[in-house]
Model the fold of this input.
Amino acid sequence: MFKYNPYIPILQKTLFLFETVNCYDLIFQEIKTMDCSAESIELIEGDCLEKIQECPDAFYQCCITSPPYWGMRSYGEVQRKGEIGNEEELEEYIHKIVCVFQEIRRVLKKDGCLWLNMGDGYTSGNRKTRAMDKKNPARAMSKRPPTPKGLKPKDLIGFPWRIAFALQADGWYLRSDVIWEKPNAQPESVKDRPTRSHEYLFLLTKSKKYYYDWESIQEIGVSGTMRNRRSVWRIPTKPFRGRHFATFPEELVRLCLQASTIKGSRVIDPFCGSGTVGKVCQDLHRSFLGIEIHPEYVELAEKRIKGS
Done:
């Protein structure tokens, strides 16, 4: 499954030497000139926690993923062992997420990064189900979790930040909270609050020092000159005809890949879904491992990536 790369031991030893003299910039310039491995795209069906545990230590450069959101939608007709997102208690959901990313931290290289996309939601008000919306069929749910302890009906749950703080407490470095602004966000029928049009994209790292190529994702400033990219990314959502409705746009993934990887880097997504990360990895010549618990989504991702 995993291919041996003769450059890896050399790079690991060299990286250690340069770290001791605090010369990361120099070693990264050298690494960027190397095509470290032949790209491969692999998709695995199964429980992501179990499958990640089979991966070797310090093997991946980057993880880009969007876990199932708690109590937001049903991702399949059959509840599978290891499935995340339909827990009765919010604390159980957060605990499962932390356990998954403990393993992700283990399999990341010392200078690796995690880009974590999360959207927020509201308490159910103890409503047991949610009807289908003609504009957004995926919102229908046959079962909804109860209102979490300490929250009230209509409360914004804030679980992106709850998860970010839980990961920080577990040892991750929380480096940035990027706002993904959606100029074409789904309309909402509410009239007592603003319509939601953003999600969060957290940058977390395994170590204090890590690989981040800021120059590769520069943006044009108000003066017309290039500048370091700001923390609000305005990226429209893209329609997708497949059965997986929770896809994030390829442009969002591209920026993460360019900032945190080089050609030939290994990337992992434990919640692969429709395979957006894998598709962009293929386009940018990165190796990719995607894990997905639902077989229909594995098939969908495979067709999508092959089609590209």
Notes: The beta strands are 41-45, 60-65, 108-118, 173-181, 198-205, 219-220, 226-227, 232-234, 266-269, 287-292.
